[in-house]
Design goal:
The protein has one helix and no strands. The chain has 132 residues and is an all-alpha fold. The relative contact order is 0.03.
Length: 132
């Protein structure tokens, strides 16, 4: 009976160990399940972040395209302003040249008028000699 009693005690002791091991295994399984859920949540957050980042990158790319288009438009406008400035400068130079030519013509007319005035005065004096 001692043998049976020893076997029963040993079986009880082994059963207690098995229960403790099963509780530890259950606890480990629960912790593993919680870690799996946390990992799943982390991956979902990572995917959301990636989606958000992708959206931001697309917005930046769109804004860059608009900026590039605007830059080209501004560059074209600047080129037009430069062309108009060059045309205006050419026109001003032409007007200045024409004004100089007109000034010379006026000076020549003034000289001719002064000569005519002198000739008229001489003619008048000559006519005065012939008056009786």
């Amino acid at each position: 009976m001692e043998k049976i009693s020893g076997l029963i005690t040993e079986i009880q002791h082994d059963s207690e160990k098995a229960l403790v091991n099963m509780d530890q295994g259950k606890q480990s399984a629960l912790e593993g399940a919680n870690m799996t859920k946390e990992t799943e949540t982390s991956f979902r957050n990572i995917f959301k972040f990636i989606d958000h980042l992708t959206s931001d990158i697309e917005e930046i790319a769109y804004a860059s395209e608009k900026l590039f288009t605007s830059s080209r438009s501004i560059s074209s406008s600047v080129d037009s302003v430069v062309a108009i400035s060059e045309q205006t400068t050419a026109g001003v130079q032409e007007v200045a040249s024409t004004s100089e030519e007109q000034k010379q013509a006026v000076l020549e007319l003034q000289t001719i008028s002064e000569n005519l005035k002198g000739l008229t005065e001489e003619l008048r004096q000559s006519i005065e000699h012939f008056k009786l």
